[in-house]
Amino acid sequence: MQETILEVNGLNAFYGRAHILFDVDLKVRKGEVVALMGRNGAGKSTTMKAIMGMLSRTQGEVSFMGNAIAKSPPHVISKMGMGFVPEDRRVFTDLTVLENLEVGSQAEREGAPYWTAEKLFELFPNLGEMPHRPGGNMSGGEQQMLTVSRTLMGNPYLVLLDEPSEGVAPVIVEQMANMIMALKKQGLTILLSEQNLQFADLVCDRAYVLENGHVRFEGTMEELDANEDVRRNYLSV
Ligand SMILES: Nc1ncnc2c1ncn2[C@@H]1O[C@H](COP(=O)(O)OP(=O)(O)OP(=O)(O)O)[C@@H](O)[C@H]1O
After folding, report:
1. Among candidates 122, 158, 135, which has minimal Cα distance to 31?
2. Cα(104)–Cα(3) distance, rounded to whole angstroms?
3. 187 Cβ partners below 8 Å, 6+ apart?
4. Which among 18, 119, 219, 225 would be 20 to 30 A from 202, CA to CA?
């Protein structure tokens, strides 16, 4: 069995007094694409932010490549090789595509795919056609691709990808799915938050389903597809 890249045990998270995550356990192994699923408000983004060290109040254990990171701040976790593409996909609007990529650049990491702007332009030909365009003059889908690319420029071992298919045109959704499959082939490990079961079925190996901050299901995509109760009760399908 492949080595475990990320292991979360008994993760609880709070916004002020509101208790949002309840004893979340999850594991991501090297080379896997794992889906974090659930309806709006289930706790997917909160789980990612908590893993990334972005929340002020959490309890539980998070281990990344064998290192305990639950008390580490986001910039330290990023430097260790964890990339995060948040839902709001902010690009630097005054910087060009190439400049945006340079901002994300980190040193090569042994055992992680190595990315250059040229390699990313092969993966996202749209971006390759506009290297000098300011980020502010791009469509939402193009900005989405740029945010993913900027994160990859950090040569991460693991990428947390928050709802890549949400709010973008169907043609971009298709490109996103192709992109994730291409990244998997390169050996990248991905934890992907997603509401859309069709999309997750296309690109993911396993899924965790959240409801009200609790993990309600854990299994392969085949097991999830076959589990009508989970799909009906906790997903919008
Ligand atoms: N900054 C915040 N302050 C207070 N409560 C928050 C905050 N952000 C999220 N919440 C609440 O935490 C719960 C989980 O939200 P979260 O964004 O993690 O869900 P999600 O599964 O990612 O859903 P979505 O698809 O809508 O992003 C929701 O009840 C939400 O209202």
Report:
1. 158
2. 27
3. 30, 31, 112, 113
4. 119
In one-letter notation, the amino acid at residue 11 is L
In Å, what is the CA distance from 119 to each residue of 101, 128, 175?
12, 10, 16
* 86's tokens: 């948040």
- Domains of the chain, first to last: 4-234 (3.40.50.300)
pLDDT at 1: 67
pLDDT of residue 3: 92
Contact criterion met (CB below 8 Å) for 144 and 168:
yes
d(C-alpha 200, C-alpha 99), whole Å = 32
Query: Ligand 1, from 21, 40, 45: best to mutate by most atoms within 8 Å of Cβ?
Result: 45
pLDDT at position 67 over 70:
yes
Q: What is the mean pLDDT of the chain?
A: 93
Burial class (CB in 10 A: 0-12, 13-18, 19+), 217: buried
User: CB–CB of 22/213 below 8 Å?
Assistant: yes
Report which ligand 1 atom has the smallest distance to the Cα of 87. 27
Given a cut of 80, is residue 101 above it in pLDDT?
Answer: yes
**Who lines ligand 1 at CB under 6 A?**
15, 18, 20, 38, 40-46, 87
Does the pTM of the predicted model rise above 0.80? yes
Q: DSSP secondary-structure letter at 3?
A: P
